[in-house]
Amino acid sequence: MTRNVVISGAGTGIGLATARMFAAHGDRVLLLGRRADVLREARVPGALTYAADVADVASLRGVTRFVADEMGAVDVLIHSAGGSGQLEPRPEREDPLEAVADDWTTAFRLNTLTAVLLTEALRSRLAEPGGRVLFLSSIAAYRGSGRSSYAAAKAALHPYAHALARELGPHGITVNVVAPGYVEDTAFFGDTMDDARRERLVAETLDKRAGTPGDVAATLHWLASPAAAHITSQIIQVNGGAERGH
């Protein structure tokens, strides 16, 4: 059965790999992202595209109307929008405290607000029963590694997902979080990844390799499948054993 799948941050990296995987299995996919040219160049077979900043309420109203007109119900909602904030324009700040405020505001806007607002905007359109909501967190949420603002913003998704799972569970909708470790072939690190850092991150894994966008996409695809119908309010780590338990 063809499902309607909405994916934010779908123009590159994990979001794009996920969009391609769902499309390859016959689902109808809507790619959301801020850059219309990137979405066009994604070339996901049969996909719809809509350029919007999902942290902006006015933009989200346009997304909501588009989904209502073109898709109706949403069977799978995947939140891949986010980032470390390193690629965002930053004002010059002489006051270090103002710089900290900018950093943390940007991190929560990119990683938390995008997910919360898009979920709430499309919440009434989630398929009942059988709907799936999937969030992308990070190994940093457990470790506080990298930029602490990014780690905190990703960690904030966990209690939100748990609360949402409790509220939507009686309607037959599951809510889960996938927390990847180091994943190559994305724009996440910009030009900050050097050989020494890469070797250290790979060495932390038990299978001694970097993750790929396809590894994460496959996990998301399974969590959205009927096989995972009794799995909800869980945080699934995809990191080659670099972080364990929880």
* Count of individual helical segments: 9
Strand order of the largest sheet: 3-2-1-4-5-6-7
Q: Which residue ranges are poorly predicted, with pLDDT under 50 across at least 5 consecutive positions? A: none
The figure for the number of domains is: 1
Main beta sheet:
7 strands, parallel
CATH homologous superfamily identity = NAD(P)-binding Rossmann-like Domain
First and last CA, distance: 35 Å
Task: Determine the structural class based on helices, strands and strand pairing.
Answer: alpha/beta
Quickly list its features:
246 residues; alpha/beta; seven-stranded parallel sheet; 9 helices; globular
Topology:
Elements lengths: L3 E5 L4 H12 L3 E6 L2 H7 L5 E4 L5 H14 L5 E4 L16 H27 L9 E5 L3 H4 L4 H8 L1 H12 L5 E7 L14 H9 L9 H11 L10 E5 L8
Parallel strand pairs: 1-2, 1-4, 2-3, 4-5, 5-6, 6-7
Family: Belongs to the short-chain dehydrogenases/reductases (SDR) family.
Organism: Streptomyces thermoviolaceus subsp. thermoviolaceus
Pfam families: adh_short_C2
